[in-house]
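Replying to the earlier thread about multi-chain prediction with a worked example.

Input:
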Amino acid sequence: MIHQFDTVIVGSGGAGLYAALEASQKSKTAVLSKLYPVRSHTGAAQGGISAALGNVEEDKPEWHAFDTVKGGDYLVDQQAAKILTEEALQAVYDLENRGLPFNRTPEGRIDQRRFGGHTRNFGEGPVRRACYAADRTGHMILQTLYQQCIKNEVAFFDEFQVVDLLLDGTTTQGVVAVELATGELHVFAAKAVLFATGGFGRIFKITSNAYANTGDGPAVCARRGIPLEDMEFFQFHPTGIMGLGILISEAVRGEGGILRNRDGERFMQRYSPTLLDLAPRDIVARSILTEIRAGQGIRGDRKIDDYVHLDATHLGKAVLSSKLPDITGFCKTYLGIDPAETAIPVLPTAHYAMGGIPTDVNGRVIMDGAGTIVDGLYAAGECACVSVHGANRLGTNSLLDLVVFGRRAGQHIGGYVKQADMPQPDATAADQARAFIDRLTDGSSGPHGGHITDEMQTTMMEKVGIYRNEKEMQAAVDEIKALRQRYRSVRVQDTAKPFNTDLLEIIELGNLLDLSLLTAAAALDRRESRGAHSREDFSERDDGNWLKHSLAYLEGDTVRLDYKAVDTSIWEPKPRTY
Amino acid sequence: MNIILNIQRYNPDVDDAPYFQEFNVEVGPNQRLLDALMLVKRFQDGSLGFRKSCAHGVCGSDAMRINGKDGLACTTLVKEVAQHDGDTVTLEPLRYLPVQRDLIVNQAEFFKKYRSVKPFLINDEPVAEKERIQSQDERMQFDDTTNCILCASCYSACPVLQDNTDFLGPAAIAQAYRFIADTRDRGFDARLAVLDQPDGVWPCQNHFKCTQSCPRSILITKRINQTKRLIEKHKEKKADT
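Result:
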């Protein structure tokens, strides 16, 4: 079936919905999502969205921009960070005006709290910058934007999985998608396509990410020749529930929670004397691992699954129930403990991709190191790389990123589609996608995806995790290549057409394997330590050779790496201490 | 331990009617029921159909009937539904919504009813300040209803829908209350047309099954009763003037 729209938005999390709200005012817009809209992973974001409102103490967008640049270990494009932090104020007010139920100050204004790496006056001490709705800020953003889409009658295609991008040279023609309900392929011809498909934490074994976070947008783009930027930078959140990886918000530490080792020591005072437990996430995650490796984990056996304690017992039941109710619930459900009485066992969990589809500050996709724009192709949110997060994202900046740049992309699309011609993809447009699906469903016997998924996630977790080295990353590249070979003989067990979730999971596995290879190869190539990319064999940051963004091109079974300059037009890179 | 999942299966292309199939799964007591389902899907039968995403109770994808009670597979631990080796856990799709495949139901009717209550802030007045001012007490008036993840557990649990499928249902009413009780909202009259109908708020008979099933601990029945009272008060006021 062939559809025609001015604009197709792929993904219905925060970035996709905000872009849809803007684009649908000015163009015929369809939102394609493999989930029902309110199921997207934006809803799992907990702690807050940062903006220098100054509602509870003095704050400035400039301080926020500096923190973002320093937090990203100077790999952030600085003019983009400036836009992010300046437009943050209006973005938060806009969400409130549209109904978002923020927590309030005694004066009835939007309340704000502390978060990791956010400081006053260029690093003097923590500042209250995170606007929040209990520990459900992402849920409230997702709900509010979906409510606004209902109000504005945005057209949704629920449970459509995009499997291919149609390009004519450097001009976008549309996408090809599988409809879950029928198994049929649909061609969506469109002047503009925006990918807002979220993250891909499912390449790792222990992750805070949803099953749906399989990087479908970046993988589809990579297979069509678009490079992915800064894939070696993947954030491990310091505090996931031990064993499960379920996120325990940084807001616990923002409200005063303390990380402790087996001696009960507040070990962060040795690693980050100024910010303590509110140091940026890469630093806290490494500190936890260093404690565990030194036998200072709670068990003390130095094993990779040892853990530390996140102590919130001194916060009291009132603070926990009014400001951190979901966290309290997760602890009760999954650990059988009350965080008001017992410390929470935590371990770093794979959380956020700083890298992704390269874009400019209007969400337009850039296809090479020379800055060539793909006409009509956009990306926003976690699947994109603007880059405002550089080598390490600050907490609360992801919700801000998707609101600010989802909105900007939607607005730019509104202008672009007015002057663009409606593409006419030919009858063969869906052929490549059809051949791929026909192979998976040809009835021949082959291995199922379950074991390949398991092995991929274990390899990435063990060999491309928090601490990295040449030998292990090379092994990871080799192992992922072998898994990609095995994937070619995978077949579905489900032969039915309607609601074939087996087929969808195998498509997702293919995406995860491609992104695993790009991540491992980019990490292997970068011979320095910066932000979340921490090498045992190159332990220092090396601005002379490596102050540059990577661009990883997927070329068959290999990855070609190129690099492009970082915008450091405001602040000179300096050593990063907290 | 080894438990038996007794799962309702249905493929509209080949099955005349739903049937049950048993799977043996090796799981720990502290694992999620969703983990057990994933073990079946990944290593025993890839054709098993169910929805899932976040796996920790915030996205609302994996609502189903678990031993006859509605809830999320990812917030139900194995030990809550099976204590011994060989125990059986029966899994069925949510009620009152057409089954599309195995545990997957068509949620169109549920979302249609939700959308009918105009679940968005209605207020065209210009904002005097940067944000609209709201006191902490005012904010807490509707707090629990903002937690709704639209999983439809309450809808499936509601005994009223058994006899009256046109009933608006608990989730939609709770979401109407979320805005009616918000001091920033001006949409009460616009929502009355849906709520003050024979199939609107009034069929609720206080069975409390919705409240008991809600994985987000929303006091749904209480919010429905508050909505009824607000409507009655509004009518009295209108009659007086």
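Chain A has 16 helices and 22 strands.

Feel free to reuse this layout for your own posts.
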